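Why does residue order matter? Because the sequence determines the fold. Keep that principle in mind as you read this record.
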Amino acid sequence: MRVFPCNAQKRPLTEHGLNDATTDEAQINAWWNRWPHADPAWAVPKEIVVGDLDCKNGKNGIKDFVEHGGVHPDAVATPQASSPTGGRHLVYAANGGAYRNGVGLNGWGIDLRTIGGYIVLPAGDNGRAWVKPLSTPLAPAPKLIDPAPAAEARPQQGAQRPFAGATAYARAALERACTAIAEAPNGEQEATLNRECYSIGGLVGAGELDKEKAIAALVAAADLMPAYAEPWRDLEGKVRRAVEDGIRLPREHSGSAPKGPETDGLIWYGDAPPTPPSYLVGETLPETGVATIGGQYGAAKTFVAADLASAIMIGGEFAGKLIMRTGGVLWFAAEGENEIEARIEAAVAARSGDAADRRPFARQAGDVPCLADKEAFERLKALAKQAAEHLERNFNCDLALIVVDTLSAAAGFDDENSAAETQKVMNMLAALARETKALVLLIDHYGKVIETGVRGSSAKSAANDAILACLGDRDQATGVMSNRKMAVTKLRAGPVGRVVPFDLEKTDDGSTCVVRWRPDEPAPPASGKPWPKALIIFKRALDEALDAAGKTTTPRPGMPEVKAVDREAVRTEFFRLYPGDTQKAKSLAFLRCAKDAVERGIMCSINVGPDLGQTIFWTP
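Structure:
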């Protein structure tokens, strides 16, 4: 059983919560040495589905179970435990059923937990007890919790249109909604969640977004909201209800004027709102187009790409930024093809996914088509179509990422420095991205001089929508790389310059390596005492708050114009990043860091407003 520690409110105590779950006894002992009163949380595997009979807040899951299942839980021969509120956890064999985590099954007091979810186990005096031990043979899941929930069959009010494929506008709107929810400040979280989910429901009702995929993305964003006062309850239920309310009033986004003899072929300013950028990884990689992960030999380019692939398949974050679109991955390995599966498997396991599970990942069976050949586009398109159909049929997901590893090995350039030859290949890859609506990610080598970027013609860099550079310091005698980091050096319509440090760690069996990301770190001051870790986190919180919510203002008459942000926006971001165990610890750390940042000249702070009741921060 993979477990991790939770507090009495069932909130994870580790940084990544469910994704930290492990069977490693040494790690488990270390956690409980640090948090001796923690409750053990079990990351439910795919072979299991748990019926959580909820008996609180006016619900009586045991009564619902008896009424609709025809039997009392006591008569069910399967492992089960009682909860402090009188509820019950019944552990069943999923037997291949496509169960999903959910709350309020059919409006009853019954929740479901399976892979991607967790339950708190009986331990010590936590108010839980095994009614029937875990060694009891598993009973098959009853029809009562069938994976096709009856709530899905309820008729929708209003004129919901059939889903005909997600539009670019709707995908971007969903991304903005997820960002707004995840970053909502204290005091505005509930309202933001309802507003954004209702708005997205309007696009679902208009047929521009798939309902279940939109809800899954919104729930993932809601899970990132800090719980300032008490733990969040029924987040999925809140999201689903708000989306379904929005569906009842479908909304149109476009104000385009109808085409006619005078407008056909032209788009006039003001006819339609500009389509905002749509990301695969927030402010890091676009949803579609062509991107490159580049670096010198040994810079861990393929390991970083494998980590990205695992994040796209499982969800969560990549290099500290939210995955905005999950889906399947198609990998064209022109070199090192025998190592790809091991690296993907390790990357999945590092995210606490079950490496033995089937995942929406495929690579080519034979040689990679030479990208410079005339028939390359048709061959790649056919393979991508085959992959997309399999993904839809077997995993219910889209093809989101196509990896070419490496470009130099796959392209077959006669002259790598030829702009015409390079442009032809890049145009073909851009066409493949448009055809598949996926991101085509190239892994490419840097030349001897890092500053010149990817090797060969400058047409490569010009044709990319995004470039991530894997950098580090190489010992010329041993070839060992240190101080590894990834930099966002190009991103159309997005911010550049973000640098994320990472470590390359060997797996337990020593067969391969995985990427371990560290927080973005600002450059240390040129002189003076070094920055404590808390101050580094504070500076990151300040920078991200300025980027997300900063406004140009004149703090007081006579002062120069600056880009400033409200203190509470920085506080919210700091609370999200800082690893304190309690709200009090985080509050004290925030106050210390704010004072330290002003004293060191890192930040300016001033009270503004009619009664000087608002505090704003900015960087000098």
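Confidence is low (pLDDT under 50) at residues 148-157, 254-261, 523-527.
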